[in-house]
């Protein structure tokens, strides 16, 4: 069974009661069939956190659906959605859900432990082996059959090292659109990604 399927998901933000004007639109469609670690990158405001919120069910899509272990996460009881997918924001606090339907109208989660773990710009302490501890944690989750998303905004050079070392595939989000990249080399060859990461031509050729 596919662990995660983001099926033609669209999220629109708009303003104006009359003559509705779309101010932001995110489109995403991809799937993750096997346990693994996925790097997520993109400029500030590009839609990375919105994508994570859609995957965990804390933000309702305008169109499309998100299936985790075959369940539409937006049809699962709010208090049980973190048994399917869980969103850790920065200092590892869990994102809260906004209730849209009473739980008695929704179905229970078919999992007791999150299958998808989304780390949204986690903070890394560069001392005392903390980075190594977290990378081992990500790998352990993968080894337990989970999918891990690691979203980093590369403000430090070691962020690139983390992405390159631990992530097997990548998603680049830019202005609400995503590009799927099968490995770090593909990321380095994409001019948009290379410019965002600050990779010069020499680094791109060796990526």
Q: How would you describe this structure to a colleague?
A:
This protein has 207 residues and is of the alpha/beta class. It has one domain (4-206): P-loop containing nucleotide triphosphate hydrolases (Rossmann fold), CATH 3.40.50.300. Helices cover 25% and strands 32% of the residues. The protein has helices spanning 48-56, 130-143, 157-166, 184-189, 191-197, 201-206; strands at 4-15, 21-32, 36-41, 63-68, 71-72, 85-89, 93-94, 116-120, 147-151, 169-174, 177-181. The strands form two sheets. The protein has a seven-stranded mixed beta sheet with strand order 7-6-8-9-3-10-11. Strands 2-1-4-5 form a four-stranded antiparallel beta sheet, with helices on one face. The longest helix has 14 residues, at 130-143. The protein is globular and about 50 Å long.
């Amino acid at each position: 069974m596919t662990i995660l399927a983001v099926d033609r998901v669209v999220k629109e933000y708009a303003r104006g009661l009359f003559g509705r004007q779309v101010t932001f639109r995110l489109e995403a469609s991809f799937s993750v069939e096997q346990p693994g670690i996925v790097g997520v990158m993109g400029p500030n405001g590009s839609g990375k956190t919105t994508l994570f919120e859609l995957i965990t069910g804390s933000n309702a899509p305008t169109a499309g659906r998100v299936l985790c272990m075959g369940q539409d996460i937006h049809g699962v009881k709010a208090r049980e959605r973190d048994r399917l997918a869980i969103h850790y924001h920065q200092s590892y606090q869990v994102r809260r859900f906004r209730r849209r339907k009473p739980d008695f109208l929704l179905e229970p989660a078919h999992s007791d432990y999150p299958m998808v773990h989304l780390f949204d710009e986690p903070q890394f302490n560069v001392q005392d082996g903390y980075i190594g501890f977290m990378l081992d944690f990500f790998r352990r989750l993968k080894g337990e059959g989970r999918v891990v998303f690691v979203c980093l905004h590369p403000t430090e050079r070691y962020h690139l090292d983390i992405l390159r070392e631990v992530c097997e595939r990548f998603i680049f989000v830019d202005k609400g659109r995503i590009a799927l990249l099968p490995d770090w080399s593909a990321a380095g060859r994409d001019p948009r990604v290379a410019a965002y990461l600050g990779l010069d031509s020499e680094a791109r050729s060796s990526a």
